[in-house]
Design a protein that fits this description.
With about 170 residues, the chain is an alpha/beta fold. Helix content is about 35%, strand content about 20%.
Length: about 170
Protein backbone atom coordinates (compact mmCIF):
# COMPACT_ATOMS: atom_id res chain seq x y z
CA UNK A 1 0.00 0.00 0.00
CA UNK A 2 2.78 2.42 0.93
CA UNK A 3 4.56 1.66 -2.35
CA UNK A 4 1.43 2.37 -4.43
CA UNK A 5 0.80 5.68 -2.63
CA UNK A 6 4.43 6.73 -3.06
CA UNK A 7 4.39 5.78 -6.74
CA UNK A 8 1.19 7.74 -7.32
CA UNK A 9 2.71 10.79 -5.62
CA UNK A 10 5.88 10.52 -7.71
CA UNK A 11 3.88 10.30 -10.94
CA UNK A 12 1.88 13.37 -9.92
CA UNK A 13 5.09 15.34 -9.37
CA UNK A 14 6.42 14.36 -12.78
CA UNK A 15 3.31 15.53 -14.63
CA UNK A 16 3.87 18.57 -16.82
CA UNK A 17 2.89 21.99 -15.50
CA UNK A 18 0.03 22.26 -18.02
CA UNK A 19 -1.65 19.30 -16.32
CA UNK A 20 -2.03 21.46 -13.20
CA UNK A 21 -3.88 24.27 -14.97
CA UNK A 22 -7.15 25.39 -13.48
CA UNK A 23 -9.37 22.94 -15.34
CA UNK A 24 -12.44 21.75 -13.48
CA UNK A 25 -14.84 18.86 -14.01
CA UNK A 26 -14.45 18.10 -17.73
CA UNK A 27 -16.80 15.48 -19.16
CA UNK A 28 -16.84 14.05 -22.67
CA UNK A 29 -19.10 15.72 -25.22
CA UNK A 30 -19.47 15.83 -29.00
CA UNK A 31 -18.72 19.54 -29.06
CA UNK A 32 -15.90 20.96 -26.98
CA UNK A 33 -17.01 23.72 -24.61
CA UNK A 34 -14.83 26.00 -22.48
CA UNK A 35 -15.66 28.57 -19.84
CA UNK A 36 -12.97 31.24 -19.64
CA UNK A 37 -12.70 33.60 -16.69
CA UNK A 38 -10.59 36.31 -15.12
CA UNK A 39 -10.82 36.87 -11.37
CA UNK A 40 -9.26 38.72 -8.46
CA UNK A 41 -10.63 36.89 -5.44
CA UNK A 42 -12.29 33.78 -6.83
CA UNK A 43 -15.89 34.88 -7.41
CA UNK A 44 -15.58 34.61 -11.20
CA UNK A 45 -13.93 31.19 -10.81
CA UNK A 46 -16.89 30.08 -8.70
CA UNK A 47 -19.31 31.38 -11.34
CA UNK A 48 -17.36 29.70 -14.16
CA UNK A 49 -17.37 26.35 -12.35
CA UNK A 50 -21.06 26.77 -11.58
CA UNK A 51 -21.79 27.46 -15.27
CA UNK A 52 -19.90 24.29 -16.22
CA UNK A 53 -21.80 22.31 -13.61
CA UNK A 54 -25.06 23.75 -14.96
CA UNK A 55 -24.04 22.37 -18.36
CA UNK A 56 -23.70 18.91 -16.79
CA UNK A 57 -19.93 19.33 -16.59
CA UNK A 58 -19.27 19.26 -20.35
CA UNK A 59 -17.26 22.50 -20.31
CA UNK A 60 -13.65 22.82 -19.24
CA UNK A 61 -13.02 25.87 -17.05
CA UNK A 62 -9.91 28.01 -17.59
CA UNK A 63 -8.34 30.93 -15.75
CA UNK A 64 -6.85 33.40 -18.26
CA UNK A 65 -3.72 33.63 -16.09
CA UNK A 66 -2.95 30.08 -17.28
CA UNK A 67 -2.93 31.36 -20.90
CA UNK A 68 -5.05 28.44 -22.14
CA UNK A 69 -4.97 27.27 -25.74
CA UNK A 70 -8.63 27.48 -26.80
CA UNK A 71 -8.07 26.52 -30.43
CA UNK A 72 -9.48 23.04 -29.77
CA UNK A 73 -12.80 24.33 -28.43
CA UNK A 74 -15.93 24.85 -30.54
CA UNK A 75 -17.89 26.91 -28.01
CA UNK A 76 -16.60 29.41 -25.44
CA UNK A 77 -18.28 31.33 -22.63
CA UNK A 78 -16.19 34.24 -21.32
CA UNK A 79 -16.52 36.39 -18.25
CA UNK A 80 -15.02 37.74 -15.12
CA UNK A 81 -15.29 39.64 -11.89
CA UNK A 82 -15.91 43.36 -12.13
CA UNK A 83 -14.05 46.17 -10.39
CA UNK A 84 -14.64 49.81 -11.27
CA UNK A 85 -16.86 48.74 -14.17
CA UNK A 86 -14.32 46.47 -15.86
CA UNK A 87 -12.99 42.93 -15.76
CA UNK A 88 -9.37 42.22 -14.86
CA UNK A 89 -6.70 43.52 -17.19
CA UNK A 90 -5.52 39.93 -17.71
CA UNK A 91 -8.92 38.96 -19.08
CA UNK A 92 -9.14 42.06 -21.26
CA UNK A 93 -5.66 41.43 -22.67
CA UNK A 94 -6.36 37.72 -23.30
CA UNK A 95 -9.64 38.45 -25.09
CA UNK A 96 -8.05 41.15 -27.25
CA UNK A 97 -5.00 39.01 -28.08
CA UNK A 98 -7.15 35.98 -29.01
CA UNK A 99 -9.97 37.88 -30.69
CA UNK A 100 -9.56 36.01 -34.00
CA UNK A 101 -9.85 32.58 -32.36
CA UNK A 102 -12.68 33.63 -30.07
CA UNK A 103 -14.82 35.60 -32.51
CA UNK A 104 -16.50 32.60 -34.14
CA UNK A 105 -16.68 30.59 -30.91
CA UNK A 106 -18.11 32.94 -28.26
CA UNK A 107 -21.50 31.58 -27.18
CA UNK A 108 -22.06 33.65 -24.05
CA UNK A 109 -20.73 36.12 -21.49
CA UNK A 110 -20.97 36.47 -17.73
CA UNK A 111 -19.90 39.02 -15.16
CA UNK A 112 -19.80 38.93 -11.37
CA UNK A 113 -20.55 42.34 -9.91
CA UNK A 114 -21.04 43.47 -6.30
CA UNK A 115 -23.28 46.31 -7.58
CA UNK A 116 -23.11 48.12 -4.25
CA UNK A 117 -25.11 45.33 -2.58
CA UNK A 118 -28.14 45.87 -4.87
CA UNK A 119 -29.74 43.37 -7.25
CA UNK A 120 -28.36 43.49 -10.78
CA UNK A 121 -30.58 44.56 -13.65
CA UNK A 122 -30.60 45.46 -17.35
CA UNK A 123 -28.34 48.50 -16.85
CA UNK A 124 -25.52 46.32 -15.50
CA UNK A 125 -25.91 43.94 -18.45
CA UNK A 126 -25.65 46.86 -20.88
CA UNK A 127 -22.65 48.37 -19.10
CA UNK A 128 -20.67 45.25 -18.21
CA UNK A 129 -21.54 42.87 -21.02
CA UNK A 130 -22.62 44.86 -24.08
CA UNK A 131 -20.32 47.86 -23.61
CA UNK A 132 -17.37 45.96 -22.14
CA UNK A 133 -16.96 42.21 -22.80
CA UNK A 134 -18.86 42.13 -26.11
CA UNK A 135 -17.00 45.24 -27.26
CA UNK A 136 -13.62 43.65 -26.56
CA UNK A 137 -14.53 40.38 -28.34
CA UNK A 138 -16.50 41.94 -31.16
CA UNK A 139 -19.32 39.42 -30.66
CA UNK A 140 -22.85 40.52 -29.81
CA UNK A 141 -26.24 38.86 -29.67
CA UNK A 142 -25.23 35.92 -27.48
CA UNK A 143 -26.76 35.01 -24.09
CA UNK A 144 -25.29 36.77 -21.07
CA UNK A 145 -25.79 37.05 -17.34
CA UNK A 146 -24.55 39.39 -14.61
CA UNK A 147 -24.37 37.65 -11.25
CA UNK A 148 -24.39 39.56 -7.95
CA UNK A 149 -21.16 39.35 -5.96
CA UNK A 150 -20.64 37.21 -2.89
CA UNK A 151 -21.31 40.09 -0.46
CA UNK A 152 -24.85 40.30 -1.83
CA UNK A 153 -25.41 36.62 -1.03
CA UNK A 154 -23.95 37.05 2.46
CA UNK A 155 -26.44 39.77 3.36
CA UNK A 156 -29.48 38.78 1.29
CA UNK A 157 -29.26 35.01 1.43
CA UNK A 158 -29.14 32.72 -1.56
CA UNK A 159 -32.77 32.76 -2.64
CA UNK A 160 -31.76 32.84 -6.28
CA UNK A 161 -30.50 29.27 -5.91
CA UNK A 162 -34.12 28.18 -6.17
CA UNK A 163 -34.38 29.46 -9.74
CA UNK A 164 -33.11 27.72 -12.85
CA UNK A 165 -29.79 28.43 -14.56
CA UNK A 166 -31.34 30.93 -16.99
CA UNK A 167 -32.47 32.98 -13.98
CA UNK A 168 -28.96 33.13 -12.49
CA UNK A 169 -28.88 30.43 -9.83
CA UNK A 170 -25.41 30.36 -8.36
CA UNK A 171 -23.79 28.75 -5.33
CA UNK A 172 -21.20 30.87 -3.56
CA UNK A 173 -20.58 33.73 -5.98
Amino acid sequence: MFFKTGLTGLIALLMPKKAFSLEYYPRPADKKWAVLYGTWCGTARDAAVWISEGMDGIANVFDVRENPDLSGYDHIIAGGAIRAGKTSQELQDFLAKNKDILKSRIRGYFAVCGNMMKPVGPQQTTTLIDNHLAAICGVTGVPSKVFPGQNYFRTHGTGCQETDAADGRHHGV
